[in-house]
Amino acid sequence: xxxxxxxxxxxxxxxxxxxxxxxxxxxxxxxxxxxxxxxxxxxxxxxxxxxxxxxxxxxxxxxxxxxxxxxxxxxxxxxxxxxxxxxxxxxxxxxxxxxxxxxxxxxxxxxxxxxxxxxxxxxxxxxx
Length: 128
Description:
This is Small ribosomal subunit protein uS9. Belongs to the universal ribosomal protein uS9 family. By secondary structure, this protein is α+β, with helices and mostly antiparallel strands. It has helices at 33-36, 40-53, 70-88, 93-98, and strands spanning 4-10, 13-21, 26-28, 31-32, 59-66. It is elongated, with a radius of gyration of 18 Å.
């Protein structure tokens, strides 16, 4: 089996995934998954699509992530892994969609508006 590429985005994070058959090693930015994401919750998020399909030890995954914070990066990686798994076996798509892994979460930070301290917050109103 040749290498499968996929892209995932979340907030400002972009994750590129390279997936090939192997023994379940996950590498992120040339570091081990446990080293890159010390939090077990973030590791769980990245592995969710694999555990949903029961293929944890079947593929070697290399991920390049840039931008965003660690939460956005982990969710971008999850989307990219999901897309790569769907490229391998399109029949898995309904199961992954039911779990909510296929949909790109398009919520991003709203921009700051002029004349305001933040996006929606206003300066204190003074009548006199």
